[in-house]
Amino acid sequence: MPNQFFWDASALVKRYAPESGTQLVNLLFSRVKLERMISLSLAVSEVLSVFVRKRNDGLITDAIFSQALAELRAEVLDSPFRLAPLEDRLVFASHPLIVQHSLNATDGLVLRAALELRTALRRAGDDLVLIASDQRLLRAADAEGLRAFNPETGSQSELELLM
Predict the structure, then answer these.
(1) Which residue(s) pair with 39 in the sheet?
(2) What is the value of pTM for the model shown?
């Protein structure tokens, strides 16, 4: 079964702003077609907010900020990378996960979307891997039986097995 990769903003941002785990994120982008990558549309806004925060804190220059936005647009917005819309149904379906796993709203949405997508993909003979660096989200994903990979703590060999 080929894996599809569902990105949380905590991992996706590493593609455009160097952080711990960027090397493995870049490896995944270099070896997996964008058609096999998915995220909530909300993740793009979250990544943008990280860029703004880094620019405002003086951690990146205006030029690096502009370059990161251009790369995000090219690889995620204007490409076969798939963005799942944020629907009210998903918001309300995430509430039990928020309560059960003490998640913030965004992590609850990411987890609910990933679980639903995994079910649909498995019916088609594929599977899903959550790519995230948020520890609480990763613990909740594990508790829900969702495969996940953390680029901050995972190894290249672990990632290669998922690709």
Answers:
(1) 7, 83
(2) 0.91
Q: What is the pLDDT of residues 43-95, one digit of tens each?
A: 999 999 999 999 999 998 999 999 999 999 999 999 999 998 888 999 999 99
Q: How many residues does the chain have?
A: 163
Architecture, CATH, for domain 3-162: 3-Layer(aba) Sandwich (3.40)
**Domain coordinates in residue numbering, the chain:** 3-162
Distance of CA 13 to the CA centre of its chain: 8
For the stretch 115-152, pLDDT in tens is 999 999 999 889 999 999 999 999 999 999 999 999 99
Q: Is 63 exposed, middle or buried (0-12, 13-18, 19+ CB in 10 A)?
A: exposed
